[in-house]
Amino acid sequence: HAQLTVFPNSLPGHLHFLNISFNDVKSIPLLHEQKLTTLVLCHNAIDVILRGTFNRLNDLHTLDFSHNRLSSLDADDLDGLESLQFLSLEGNSLRNLAPYAFHRTPNLKMLRLSNNPLKFIDATWFRNLDVLESLEVRSIDAHSITDNAFSLATRLESIDLSDNDFVDIPRGLGSARNLKILRMDQNPLVKLDSSSMSGVRRLRELYLSQMPQLEAIEDGSFWYMKALRVVEISGNPLLKVVSASAFQWNTSPILRMELANNSLSTLPEGFVEWCGKGKLDLGGNPWSCNCETSWIKRCRSTEGLMCSSPPRLAGRSLDEVDVSEMTCPLSRTLLLQFENT
């Protein structure tokens, strides 16, 4: 915040940490601070990395280059950063990453490329990234991923694809064989079905929130996902249907399920498996308080759950409604009894 326009000419010897963020620096010279371990250059106006800039920063493990003006990255721009573990390039103007753009950073564990107009993910970017664990590619205008996109990133465990243009779970995610955490919030998915998760059965955490077009979670959507522990599907204004057969109830290991702030008026009774242990968040939905949802009263906490129908219960807290008031027409009651036999 010193309103710098040029990179400092003189720096203390044996410097380990350097932060010149939130200035108007437009270029960086060849750096000779060999002891640097952390370099923060975010929120400047740097539009190019000169060849050899980082050649002597052999100990650098953290480089924050976010929110600058880079439009491209060449294969040798990061030469000298063999010890780098964290790299942020988010919020630049990157349209072109050269093949093998990160091959000079073999120890990189976290890579942030979000908020760049990249439009696609190229498998060659991950050449020599054998220990990469986390990739963030939010808001890059991507709508598809090639089948082998992550085949070179053999230790990749976490991918954030939020705020892109995917209309389904990309098949190319299957090439990330050790993927455990997937974030796909704010994508235009319309539904999940039995084929949606076929390439990511080993996930432990799944985040599918703030999706403006998601309407239904159909039969078999989460079958065979034996490692799944956390599911967050919240803030989806059109989501009204979650199938009773979306999960395999007897084998599901889920520890936390969030279905808050959707448009759910009813939910299959199988979800009681989670709510009894405080694992289920159902707040902010327009519940129909009748015989189909009376099981929710058995949850550990129903605080904040509100009835939207029938008219005689609309606006009342589910906490205050007695199970005896949650009735259905006789024909509906008989149908539910038939379905449960």
Describe this structure as you would to a colleague.
The protein is mainly beta and 341 residues long. The chain folds into 2 domains: 1-188, Ribonuclease Inhibitor (Leucine-rich repeat, LRR (right-handed beta-alpha superhelix)); 267-341, no CATH class. Helix content is 4%, strand content 15%. It has helices at 272-275, 330-339, and strands at residues 17-19, 38-40, 62-64, 72-73, 86-88, 96-97, 110-112, 134-136, 158-160, 181-183, 191-192, 205-207, 216-217, 230-232, 241-242, 256-258, 280-281, 286-288, 306-309. The strands form 4 sheets. Strands 1-2-3-5-7-8-9-10-12-14-16-17 form a 12-stranded parallel β-sheet. The radius of gyration is 25 Å and the shape is elongated. The protein starts with 16 loop residues before the first strand and ends with a helix. The model has no long low-confidence stretch (mean pLDDT 91).
Approximate helicity band:
under 10%
CATH fold field value of the largest domain: Leucine-rich repeat, LRR (right-handed beta-alpha superhelix)
Q: Give the neighbour order of strands across the main sheet.
A: 1-2-3-5-7-8-9-10-12-14-16-17
Specify the number of helices.
2
Helical/strand content category: mainly beta
Backbone shape: elongated
Tally of discrete structural domains: 2
Distance between the termini: 69 Å
Please identify which CATH superfamily of the largest domain we are dealing with. Ribonuclease Inhibitor
Give the beta-strand count: 19
CATH class identity of the largest domain: Alpha Beta
Percent in strands: 15-25%
Query: How is the quaternary structure best described?
Result: single chain
